[in-house]
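Example record

The entry below shows one chain as it appears in the dataset: sequence first, then structure tokens.
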Amino acid sequence: MKKRLLTIVLTAMSTFGAFAQFTAGNLAVYRYGNGVAPLANGVRVPVFVDEYTPAGAFVKTIAIPQIASGANYGFEGLGLTAGGAFEAEGYPVLSRDGSVFSIIGRLNAGSNTEFVIATVDATGTITATTKVNSSDDIGSPRSAVVEGNAVYFNGFQNGVRYKLLGSDIASTRVSTAQNAPRVLTIATTALGAGPILANKLFVPDNGVNFPMRDLPVTSSGGFNSLIYSGGGANGSHQIIALKTSTGRTIIYAIEENAGAPIIRKYRSNAGGDTWIAYGSVSVPVGTKSLSATISTAGANIYYTTYGTVGGNNSKLYSLFDPFTGGNEQLNLSATAVELATAPANTTFRGVTMAPGTNVLPVKLTAFNANEKNGSIRLNWSTASETNSSHYNILRSSTANDFSKISQVSASGTTNNTSNYSFVDETPQPGTNYYKLQQVDFNGDNETFGPVSATIPVPKTDFSVVKNGNDIVLQIYAAKAQNGKIEVADINGKINHNQAIQLEKGYNKVMLPANKLPKGLNVVVLSTVEGKVAKKTIL
């Protein structure tokens, strides 16, 4: 077990410049108190971000300024409540694209109902220009999460709130229920056949499920949840949702569990309508924040604990959930590794991956398909790419069972816009569905789409294909329907009569070649749409 007790002397420092740059893959631990004196009841304290490596080695500290400067508000935290307990506030949350993490705290020199939302990016730049007004009436501040220029936040009451970053006007409540959510999260999920990708806002509320809603969310509405196999969560506090390479979504959740907290693992089922539980591990009381990264080998999970008031035992831990043999359905049963202990007279409030860690390998801004002169052209654009090797072009005539038809080289790593195209010269008649599978140099991949385009075809048609002694009718049907096949000779005598049931799309029907006369024959397909006849020499 690796343990590091950090003793530091905090001094004022700039939040800009190379010294404040985070290292991708490291941890950002949000901490209350400067260590000079113990946390006191009802007293506000300065707050800091400590960077650690995944192995627990301390890297540096960044101070969140308490004093207002320019457009930035002064930012503080409440170390202990008036009653001497840790306040459940200020949990850090990484944005979906990994570019920033956000924190919500108390406005320096403001009332106890005025708060500030700050973001911290990969360069260590702190932007604290978003004010939460008294009129929002959220109680104590709990969490905030950013998506583009939008921020969603919550407190102890009045639900999930929405506003634009950098504004000081009143916010909009966007949850009809979920009056007192815990820690908000935004993640891209992969659910059901395809799978269907969506960006969702998760709002755990100490209940038995994980309420979620598709983005964008700008007005009041309901949040839904999936079914739970074997019962629901037990006091949901925070979740981390991770899209896997197999087209499923895995969730790691902190659950209060009636005072005996656990981290439980869930995975979506094939239909995308159920969370299936796969084991849990017990964690210390006061475990309130977690973060995680995922690969084909497994998931690295990190979490922090408050410790006990005055105990100087607030800690940072890690777990590894291996996907042995690529099996994501193994039960979570890992042993925790202690990475670090908070400095004396301080407490860890939460942990997230350092900004810049989970930046999506490809930021896709457009993907479309268009038919022209019997071909289909795919166009797609990216705003940036990181370690992107190539794109596999996948096609299907049914929106299921996609297969690779070609490959296009990617741009590697770039922060500039990249435009791509591919022309499918041999599409199938009818509707063609396409997906892009973006592949990194390390083999990780992400799938986008589907998009579709249609090649015009007759209502119903067929062709006769002779393969050795076999005769096959390749029939395209515009819809599912019953039909009849007749084979007649040049004198009009019907030598074969066969009833068939056609599925929408392509069908194959074998004819009994050994029972048909040699020479010229006429094959007639009859359906509710009419008759189609083809001559063929057998």
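Notes for this example: The first strand starts at residue 27 and ends at 32. Residues 362-455 form a domain with the Immunoglobulin-like fold (CATH 2.60.40.10).
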